[in-house]
Amino acid sequence: MAENWWKNAIGYQIYPRSFKDSNGDGIGDLQGVIEKLPYLQELGIDFIWLNPIYASPNVDNGYDISDYQAIQPEYGTMEDFKELLEKAHAVGIRVILDLVVNHTSDQHPWFIEAKKSKDSPYRDFYHWQDATEQKLPNDWQSFFGGSTWTIDPETNQAYFHVFAPQQPDLNWKNPKVRDEIYQMIRWWLDLGIDGFRLDAISHIQKADWKMKIKDNPWAPFMNVSGIDAYMQDLKALFDEYPIMTVGEASGVTSKKAVDWTKEEGYLDMIFELEHNVRKGIPGQERIDLLGFKKVLARWQKHLEHEGWNALYIENHDNPRFNTVLGNETAKSAKALAVMYLFLKGTPFIYQGQELGMTNFPFTAIEQVDAKDSHSYYNRLLAEGVSEKEALAIVTRWTRDNSRTPMQWDETKNGGFTSGKPWLSVNPNTAEINVASEQDDDSVLNFYKQLIAYRKDEKIFTEGGFDLIAVNDPDIFAYVRSNQEKKVLVLVNVSEKKRHLELPKRIYSKKWQLKISNGGQKPIAKQMTFEPYDALVFESVNQK
Ligand code: TEU
Ligand code: CA
Q1: 5-102+173-362+406-449 adopts what CATH topology?
Q2: Which top CATH class is 462-539?
Q3: Does 370 have pLDDT greater than 90?
Q4: Is a pLDDT exceeding 50 seen at residue 208?
Q5: Per CATH, which fold does 109-160 belong to?
Q6: pLDDT at 1
Q7: Which residues are found with C-beta within 5 Å of the ion, ligand 2?
Q8: In this structure, which ligand is nearest to the CA of 316?
Q9: Position 85 pLDDT exceeds 70
């Protein structure tokens, strides 16, 4: 197997619950993924990342695991998983799984045992401290709102959780915990999976409970010193297998990311979590292109010589980019694809992004499933915000925008299920869907073209990156270059007609148009772009 195969690969993120339901219970499942392997093969992707498929009470849709070595019954069986792995491999698609080891479910046998008494051999698998309602160990706040501590009145202690109370954090300081986790990881790798996406991995180490928070409320559990030893262990284990690893490592800065992802680093790549720079009034916020572009350009620069980027615009925690940066048209969906797919790093495509799927038109809070969105909504009501306004604010950015079922055809349930979907299908499945996007002009076909082009040209893997029009608030433009050639990417990420003056070093070269989502435009000193125009040019270096 080629070393570092992931450097020239394109990933596809599958949210199993919403991808394809094979048995009519309204919930996506592993047989559904198997059924759609030909679709993925035709798209041209190299690996899939599956969001958690392990046994879970589903407080956080699978991110609360009660058995790491069992498949969630709603999704199928271990036999189904092995079948998926085998069939994916047979068509050249690798499979990476979500590794959620910052916390377990409170229904995991370790926590059930731990909770029984202070003397339980599992007590130390988690973080327990003496506490009363009046006096918690500290005033740290969790990501999902409320204290990081939940009291157990039976023992007058509290346990620690950075997410929901049903997601107690594992105590990584305990060698027994580490042993269990490492064994579990080995078990999956021995089964033949191709890697992991490491969930919330920068949170596994916590600061001293007495640490006082200054500005960043999450500083006590964001890439805290001492994490290195655990990451080294993980690296040593991962190095035994020809896999890829991608970390969700919030709080690891672009500078620090070099140490995390260089050749001797802990992981192959990490996702940055800084690019969602928002502007506009709550309820109508959009991505601020200038902010977005500066974040991406900084990560490109800092990881230029050492380290590696994971590229993405959408995932299961964020709204649809075609709504918050595009204008929900096929053209803008194509422009956004061009904008990020040619950066340096390993691109990930989130299910439905390749169709131009959009946010859901929520009209009632009951349509929202995500618990964090409900608590946010209730908090706003308590602050006196009207129901209508609270709904708009919450649903603009709720994670459920991206979790609505995949749109396979124009029927009411989008061909996702023959039953009642667990989350409503976006009504625009009438127009935006796989079946109707078989024509040359579709977003889907455009993605296929971009993927094929990117994989064909090694310049995208190793070539340098230079941002141009650095301060332009609407245009994302850059040059990739290697010994042989240059590639110029020009995208008007706005609904306005825009002008751009190119520098001489660019317009003086001979360029050939390779990709376009609209017009044929020659390179000139003064360029004019129609809304959401996206163009890719190549120039062969003169000897
Ligand atoms: O998200 C975690 C996550 O977004 C935090 O780690 C992040 O650091 C924080 O919000 C600060 O910005 C992952 C999953 O992607 C998400 O779906 C889960 O709900 C969560 O972990 C808990 O497992
Ligand atoms: Ca099902």
Answers
A1: TIM Barrel (3.20.20)
A2: mainly beta
A3: yes
A4: yes
A5: Oligo-1,6-glucosidase; domain 2 (3.90.400)
A6: 43
A7: 21, 23, 25, 27, 29
A8: 1
A9: yes
